[in-house]
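Lab notebook, bench 4. The sequencing result for the construct came back, and we need a structural model before the next group meeting so we can plan mutations. Quick request posted to the team channel:

Model the 3D structure of this chain.
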Amino acid sequence: MDVTIRPISISGTVRAPASKSIAQRLLILSAIANTPTFLAIEHASDDIAATVRCLRALGARIQPMERRDSSGTSTRGLRVTPLPHDPSGRPVALSDVALNCNESGATLRFLIPVVCALPARARFSGEGRLPERPLAPLTDELLRHGATIEHKSAKELPLVAEGPVRGGRYSIDGSVSSQYISGLLLASPLLDEGLDLHVLDPFESKPYVRLTAEALERFGVHVLSDRLDGEHGDSQAIRGAHFEHATRFIVEGRQRLVSPGDIEIEGDWSQAAFWLAAGAIGEDVRVSNLNLSSVQGDRAILGALALMGVRVSREGGICQATGKGLRGAAFDLSDMPDLVCPLAAVAALAEGKTRFFGTRRLRLKESDRLESVRNALTALGGKATLLGDELEIEGVCELSGGVVDAAKDHRIAMMAAVCALRAKGPVTILGAECVSKSYPTFFEELRALGGSVEEA
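Done. Here's the predicted structure in token form:
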């Protein structure tokens, strides 16, 4: 699907969708918990659907459901009936199953250790660039602890993963993907020996690991962390003051995952960031359903926009960004790489230069996202340059419009749509359907705000 967006002012309030990152973690824990769980997820993205499909293949029952509270208000979501349990209370999965993770790196990297810990046997496959994205740091550790990992080709996928796998001490490079760390933590309650996980510096995307720890806590599993300074005294709770400096995570094995019953999932800051970027470049947009104390790393969009001269207002769970006199800034995105696209849209129209560093891993996303951002902005009359693995954008007074190839990357498509709002002429986005990976209703929301969106 190609989409043409004509420059026109938009206004109104957008409700941020349920956080994709949180939903995927909670779905997995719900599938291995003790009793059913209801998750409030109104619109399932492709990545959430991939997680659901794989959990069903392992034996969990996941059904759409509409829940009504005492006031009669209805909420749509998913009811997860977990895997059956053996007499000892251990979840039992189906084995020799095929798990197609589509393009979801989180689904793949979370479920490989979970499958091995159950233990079960599964053949993992994927689409797009997923078969090329690295797995070796994770699979090497699983092999070292007794798992069987069989690659069927020179690429990472397809592969067969089979347990059992032992717990104990694991070491993971923290600079490749936080999803390896989260996958091991999600599997940890299933390990008889528990998990003593050492994350080697540099430890990037720490907020995503905190999301995993919070998800485990909601199911009654406690994650402890030690401090970076080398002191090995009392461990600090994951919410403790020293979490930011932790390199070691400890989870006792065979903890009982207790379903909390009904779970509301907070709004997604990664998706809200695009609407806040639209506000920063001059649109009258507010975003609701946001948790202002969230541990989602992309909540940092508020501070980042403020550094660029944007006025950010907050009231309850509603945020609004208002831009005037935008200026360039420098950003280390090591902990929040997904913000490069919304911030790039703002930087394209800001005075001076904006520089993004800590962005090396963006080359391993759905596209080489550094290249894709540069190509998209250049196609629209912007000025973007790659300096190795860093991105520099020099602001222009006005974007011209043009044709952008989304490169099968959902965040590139959404960035181009935001840029189109302040372009001189129309912007056509090729392959715009890729937004369904994370935000299937994005263009519907844009229309509801008064945007001109034509599909071809």
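The two ends are 6 Å apart (CA to CA).
Will bring this to the meeting.
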